[in-house]
Amino acid sequence: MKFGRLIDLKRCMGCRSCVAVCATENYFTPGSPWNVMVEYEVGAYPKVKTIYNPMGCMHCEKPACKAVCDYIGVKAIRKTEFGPVIVDYDKCIGCGYCGNTCPYGVPQLNGKKLAPLSPGKGAVGSEAIPLAARHPTHQKKAQTVEKCTFCYHKLEQAAVDGKLDRVGKDQAYTPSCDLVCPVQARMFGDIDDPGSDIAKRIKETGAVQLKKEFGTAPQVFYVLEEGAKS
Amino acid sequence: MKNAIFIALLSALFLAPATGALAADAAPAVKKAPAPGSKSMAEKGSYHRLHGKKEKLDCEDCHETEPLPPGTLKLRYYKPLAKDSPGPVTAEACHECHGKEQKKKVTWYAPKGKK
Predict the structure, then answer these.
(1) Residues of A with CB under 8 A from a CB of B
(2) Predicted-assembly ipTM surpassing the 0.90 threshold
(3) Mind listing the domains of chain A with CATH numbers?
(4) pTM of whole model > 0.80?
(5) How far is CA A19 from CA A38, A175, A181, B6, B90, in A?
(6) pLDDT by residue for chain A (230 residues), tens digit each?
């Protein structure tokens, strides 16, 4: 079983619901986003269009971030059983090598002080949970790297509940960004199972991974709009 | 006796680097972990020491002289650069020398022996 994501750029309209829900679910540090909307135009006047490309961690099969972290002896990044690449905040030394090495520039060094998500407006989303009660991926520390976890707290809960078959289907076991998309441009599930909805849709649509030339084998697939970068 | 010493010296000079290179290909050396709270890569200037001083590359070999164009598929492309920064560096620039097809390939892009 290996979880992956499919993002259909032909459907995405750039509403940023996925970005907003990630911010509250994972209360990522302002300035160190886990999910961003890359936006650009293609074509020539009068035939121009905007491409909306949501980007988060690609959770690569051979993650460059992990390779370089292991190489310098820190070993703060691990590839988990079901696919997510996770940073251990207790081990991270904040050197920034992972962020520079990642072809997608995903790992974010969060700064000397953790800033609240909405300054002056109190705790938002998971921020309201006491630090010790939070999932380890939410027990963030200053001067460490943070990034998308595929909502690992939900996947782990699915494993504990014996409901891994419900990942991608039930709200409690599916990454929040994939739940809220109003145009169903996102899908999450077991990409190892050829009979799964996501595997079928990847095959049907000819979805591709971005920047394949780096050889990191990302687990996020994109249905590319005509003219979109890959 | 002199011959034996001469042969030993020759071995040390020529064979050791060769076997060292083979060993490096087989298993990359793992460096000692930096201490927690130590200076960041940018603060230490490790990359600059290696690429600028040792390899004698020009700034433009790695740094883009223009801001990254809109739509750069990089999560942090919009981040403001540090003061006096010569320009952003993309992983694509690293890949030009360190890609899997290149001579100076590194283990973090397409590990050796794997597709």
Answers:
(1) 31, 33, 36, 38-41, 51, 53, 55-56, 62, 64-65, 67-68, 70-75, 93-97, 99-106, 108-109, 143, 210-211, 213-216, 229
(2) no
(3) 3-223 (3.30.70.20)
(4) yes
(5) 11, 12, 10, 68, 23
(6) 999 999 999 999 999 999 999 988 998 788 888 999 999 999 999 999 999 999 999 999 999 999 999 988 899 999 998 899 999 999 998 888 899 899 999 998 888 888 787 888 888 777 788 888 999 999 988 889 999 999 999 999 999 999 999 999 999 999 999 999 999 999 999 999 999 999 999 999 999 999 999 999 999 999 999 888 88
